[in-house]
Amino acid sequence: MFSAEQDLPATRHICFLTGTRADFGKLKPLIVGASELPGIRVTVLVTGMHLMPKYGSTVNEVRRLEPGVHIREFDNQSEGDSMDRILARTIEGLAELIDEDRPDLIVVHGDRVEALGGAAGGALRNVAVAHVEGGELSGTIDGVLRHAVSKLSHIHLVANEESKRRVVQLGEDSATVWAIGSPDIDVMLSDSLPSLGEVLSDYEIPFDSYALVILHGVTTEDVQTNAAVASGMIDALIKRDGNAVIVHPNNDPGSEVILDAYERLDGDERFRVFPSLRFEAFLTLLRHAEMLIGNSSAGIREAPIYGVPSVDIGSRQRGRADHPSIIHSGISAAEVAAAMTVAEGMQRAEPSLQFGTGDSAERFCALLAGNEIWARGVDKVFQDLLISED
After folding, report:
1. CATH topology of domain 196-344
2. CB neighbours of 207 closer than 8 A, spacing ≥ 6?
3. E-strand spans in 192-262?
4. Domain parsing of the chain, residue ranges
5. Rounded Cα gap, residues 252 and 230, in angstroms
């Protein structure tokens, strides 16, 4: 995949931190690539909703990694814990790993509270932190967390030049920012995904024509608003003449009312509801779906890569990248139904490659095999931008 002509120290220790099925799907190509490099030892610190049976116990997917990857698990939350408590416990769990087996580099992804804990823990202990997919726009509290993670990180592995510009705008040194693309595109564009028939059989899905549905709680909205969003979407799905594969939300505040709303679908053979799906199986289902419905970032990022229409409901993805395949919708049943009708009438859009071309792991490993990132210290200086007064 790449050549490592530079001499590496006998062992560099890289710790990847993952708290959700989503960030693991992004990090997995980088984990696998790093584990195959000579002179690199890899630990994956698994926490968050991975360890919660209610959300599918997705730690089992992490455990499928190559035997050479060390898996370390710790619980950072109980059901219903607030984000500040989860943050504190994440930092505490990481501190134990740093005490026992000090890593040379901690790799975190995106805008989750676990990523913030990983970045803060590393920064406070003078351990270099690499942030994957910083510089992007997220709605609600997620956008604040993403930029905070960037400010606590020392190495920035962004998806594209637009994201690089935003990280530099935050006062980061442009020499510490590399546009490597979005790592999950490596998997999306590979020839190793399971066939649709295999996925339908494995998950006992009795239909091959379906919408894919993922709705998450919105952390900055109250319970009543989250409940209204879920109710409007369920009403529209029930009235729609079609099948749906539905994936449970993540464990953000608001998830309970969404799960309660899904109980209305019990016994309806048009719907199959899952706590979670293997990442590769999810991608196969997405590639063949009629549309994606909900407010997941998959509708903004992954669906356009396949040209699949997506109905983006409500405010969660406000301000993020747009694409002709995305239909933005209000939260009422009538608005969601109208957006679904538009999606049904759309042809597949041209695939979007604005976030990468499928070689992120190769670019990442080339950085690890060189000396540039290892030679950098952890002391940071804010980089002022020169702004013209004209």
Report:
1. Rossmann fold (3.40.50)
2. 200, 243, 270
3. 211-214, 244-247
4. 12-188+357-369, 196-344
5. 14
Which of these, 215, 193, 224, 198, lies nearest to 358 by C-alpha position?
Answer: 193
Residue 228, φ and ψ in degrees, nearest 5? -65, -40
> What does the alpha-carbon distance between residue 41 and residue 36 come to, in Å, rounded to a whole number?
9
**Both tokens of residue 137?**
């726009």
Asked whether the CA dihedral 311, 333, 341, 207 is positive or negative, the reply is: positive
Residues pairing with 245 in the sheet: 212, 272
Q: In angstroms, how far apart are the furthest CA atoms of the chain?
A: 65
Let me know the angle formed at the C-alpha of 117 by 52 and 42, rounded to the nearest 5 degrees.
Answer: 80
Q: Return phi, psi of residue 106, to 5°.
A: -110, 130
pTM: 0.89
Strand partners, 246: 213, 273
Q: Which residue has the tokens 């099948």?
A: 243
323-372: per-residue pLDDT in tens? Answer: 999 999 999 999 999 999 999 999 888 888 889 999 999 999 999 999 99
* Residue 233 neighbours by CB distance under 10 Å: 28
pLDDT in tens, 252-283: 888 999 999 999 999 999 999 999 999 999 99
User: CA 146, CA 132: separation in Å to the nearest integer?
Assistant: 10
Q: 12-188+357-369 — its CATH code?
A: 3.40.50.2000
